[in-house]
C-alpha cells in the first residue's frame, strides 16, 4: 500500500508542505476576521443611525414627533402636546378627545408608527414634578395608570411595577424616586420601581431637605411628627410637635412646647437655647439666627461665629458663605475671612473642587481651594460630566479643565466634526485640522450640539448647518426671546424649556 503524499521517502512529515498548509489556514482565518470586522463596523454604523432620540414637534398648531436626524416621525396631528418621557424610547403619551367644558380627556401611549401600545387602561399619565426653582420634570421611565377607579404603575416597557390598588399616586414635590400613594385615606411612599418604602398609614408625608436620601417626615392621625430614613426604617417616632426640614445625619431639629431644639438619634436634647431659630446643621455645629442675624455655634453651645451676618450657610466642610450688607464672601468655621465680601453670590462645585463667585451677571470669578482667583469672565458653560468650563474672556471663548489649564476646543468637544472660528469679525467653521469648511460669513455661530447641528446667525435671524457644514435651514428665525438657541434639522428649540419641544416659527 503506497504512502500518502504527506510523507517523504523515509516516512517523515514533509515540513515545508505542512508549513504551507498552516500558512494558508492562517490566511483564511485572518480573512474571516477582517470580513467580520467590516461587517461589525457596518452594523455599528447602522446602529448609530438607528439609535436616534425623539422630541415633541409643534407645527401648524398641531403636535407630532421628530427624531434627532431632523426627520418627522409622527406628522403633527394632535391637539395637545405629545410627551416624550425617555428620548431614546419610541413610547409617547398622547392626550386626545379633550372636552374644554367638562375638563375630560383621554390618553394613550403610541410608538413611532403612531400605533397604540400598552392597551387595557382607562387612563395613562406621566408623573410631573418640580424642582426648587420651579422647573418641571417627569419621573423617568414610569407611567401612572388607572383602571376601574384605582391606580398603579407601569414602566416604559409596559411592565406593571405597582399593582392597581391605590386611590391616588402623585409625586412628592421636589424629590426624586419618591411617590406618594394613598389607600383608604392613608398615605405611604413607594419608589419608581414599585417597592413600598413606607406603608400607607400616615395622615401626611413630606420630604426632608429635598432629597429622598435624607428621609421622610411623617405625620400621624394625632398630628405628631416622626422621621423615617429612605429605606423606611424609623429614626424618630411620631411624638413631636414638628420636625424641621433640615438635613443632618446625627442631629435633628424638632419642636417641643413651641420651641426649637436640636436632638440626636437617641432623642436626647443637644441644644435648646442661645438662638431664636436653627437654620442649618453643619459639620461644625449649627447655623443659628438671633435678633435677625446669623451666626455659628458648636454642639455644646459655644459661639464660634457671633450673630452678625445677613445670611450664613456652610457650602463645603468648614467653609461658610456669609452675607454682609449686600455682598457675599467666605469665612471658615472660626469666623476668619477667606474670601472678601465683594460678590453677588458664591457657589461651591464639589465634583470640580472649586468656587464660582459672581461679580455681576456677566462676570464670574473661578476660585481654587486656596481661595485664589484663577479665572475671570462670562461663564457660559460648566460641564461637570466632561470636566470643562467655557468662559468668554475679552470677547473670545476659551475652554479650561478643572485644573485651570486652557484646552484646545477639539480636545474638549471630542465628538464634534466642526468648530466655530472667528476671523475679521465674522464667524465660520473649521474641521479638526483647522481647514475652513464654512466660510466666515456669519455674525454669530454656536458650537455643534450632540446631534451635529450648529446654529448660525445673519443679522437678527437664526438658521442651522449640519455636521458636514451644509445649511439645513437658512437664517430665517427671530429668536431673541429664546433663552437657548438649538436646532435639530430645520426645527428650533421652543421658548419654554420646561416643555422641551422643537418647532418652526
Description:
With 505 residues, this protein is mainly β. Among the domains are: 1-51; 417-505, no CATH class. The chain has two helices and 50 strands. A seven-stranded antiparallel β-sheet has the order 34-35-36-37-38-39-40. A six-stranded mixed β-sheet has the order 3-2-1-50-49-48, with no helix packed on it. It is flat. The N and C termini lie far apart (91 Å). The relative contact order is 0.05. Residues 1-49 have low confidence and may be disordered.
Question: Alpha-carbon distance between the termini?
Answer: 91 Å
Strand order of the largest sheet: 34-35-36-37-38-39-40
- How many helical elements? 2
**Overall form:** flat
Structural class: mainly beta
Return Rg in Å. Answer: 31 Å
Helix content: under 10%
Question: What's the count of strands?
Answer: 50
Q: Low-confidence stretches at least 5 residues in length (pLDDT < 50)?
A: 1-49
Determine the mean pLDDT.
89
Biggest sheet details: 7 strands, antiparallel
Beta-strand content bin: over 45%
Amino acid at each position: 500500500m503506497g504512502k500518502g503524499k504527506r510523507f517523504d521517502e523515509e516516512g517523515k512529515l514533509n515540513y515545508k508542505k505542512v508549513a504551507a498548509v498552516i500558512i494558508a489556514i492562517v490566511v483564511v482565518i485572518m480573512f474571516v476576521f477582517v470580513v467580520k470586522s467590516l461587517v461589525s463596523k457596518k452594523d455599528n454604523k447602522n446602529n448609530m443611525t438607528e439609535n436616534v432620540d425623539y422630541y415633541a414637534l409643534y407645527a401648524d398648531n398641531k403636535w407630532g414627533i421628530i427624531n434627532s436626524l431632523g426627520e418627522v416621525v409622527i406628522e403633527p396631528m394632535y391637539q395637545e402636546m405629545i410627551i416624550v418621557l425617555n428620548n431614546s424610547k419610541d413610547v409617547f403619551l398622547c392626550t386626545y378627545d379633550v372636552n374644554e367644558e367638562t375638563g375630560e380627556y383621554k390618553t394613550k401611549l403610541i410608538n413611532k408608527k403612531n400605533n397604540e401600545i400598552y392597551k387595557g387602561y382607562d387612563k395613562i399619565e406621566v408623573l410631573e414634578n418640580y424642582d426648587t426653582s420651579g422647573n418641571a420634570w417627569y419621573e423617568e421611565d414610569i407611567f401612572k395608570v388607572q383602571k376601574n377607579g384605582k391606580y398603579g404603575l407601569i414602566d416604559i416597557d409596559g411592565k406593571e411595577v405597582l399593582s392597581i390598588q391605590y386611590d391616588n399616586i402623585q409625586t412628592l414635590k421636589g424629590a426624586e424616586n419618591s411617590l406618594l400613594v394613598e389607600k383608604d385615606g392613608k398615605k405611604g411612599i413607594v419608589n419608581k420601581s414599585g417597592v413600598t418604602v413606607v406603608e400607607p398609614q400616615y395622615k401626611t408625608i413630606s420630604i426632608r431637605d429635598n432629597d429622598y436620601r435624607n428621609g421622610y417626615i411623617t405625620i400621624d392621625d394625632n398630628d405628631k411628627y416622626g422621621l423615617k430614613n429612605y429605606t423606611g426604617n424609623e429614626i424618630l417616632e411620631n411624638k413631636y410637635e414638628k420636625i424641621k426640614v433640615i438635613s443632618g445625619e446625627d442631629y435633628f431639629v424638632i419642636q417641643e412646647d413651641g420651641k426649637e431644639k436640636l436632638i440626636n438619634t437617641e432623642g436626647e436634647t443637644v441644644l435648646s437655647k442661645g438662638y431664636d431659630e436653627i437654620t442649618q446643621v453643619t459639620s461644625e455645629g449649627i447655623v443659628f439666627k438671633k435678633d435677625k442675624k446669623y451666626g455659628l455655634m458648636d454642639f455644646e453651645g459655644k459661639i464660634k461665629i457671633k450673630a452678625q451676618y445677613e445670611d450664613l450657610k456652610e457650602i463645603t466642610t468648614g467653609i461658610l458663605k456669609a452675607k454682609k450688607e449686600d455682598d457675599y464672601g467666605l469665612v471658615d468655621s472660626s469666623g476668619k475671612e477667606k474670601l472678601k465680601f465683594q460678590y453677588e453670590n458664591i457657589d461651591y462645585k464639589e465634583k470640580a473642587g472649586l468656587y464660582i463667585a459672581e461679580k455681576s451677571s456677566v462676570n464670574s470669578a473661578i476660585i481654587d481651594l486656596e481661595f485664589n482667583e484663577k479665572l475671570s469672565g462670562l461663564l457660559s458653560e460648566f460641564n461637570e460630566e466632561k470636566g470643562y468650563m467655557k468662559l468668554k474672556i475679552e470677547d473670545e471663548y476659551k475652554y479650561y479643565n478643572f485644573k485651570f489649564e486652557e484646552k484646545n476646543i477639539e480636545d474638549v468637544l471630542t465628538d464634534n466634526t466642526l468648530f466655530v472660528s472667528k476671523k475679521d469679525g465674522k464667524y465660520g467653521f473649521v474641521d479638526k485640522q483647522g481647514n475652513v469648511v464654512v466660510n466666515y460669513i456669519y455674525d454669530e455661530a454656536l458650537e455643534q450640539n450632540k446631534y451635529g447641528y450648529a446654529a448660525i446667525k445673519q443679522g437678527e435671524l437664526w438658521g442651522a448647518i449640519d455636521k458636514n457644514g451644509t445649511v439645513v435651514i437658512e437664517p430665517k428665525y427671530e429668536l431673541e426671546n429664546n433663552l437657548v438657541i438649538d436646532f435639530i434639522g430645520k426645527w428650533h428649540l421652543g421658548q419654554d424649556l420646561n416643555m422641551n419641544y422643537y418647532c418652526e416659527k
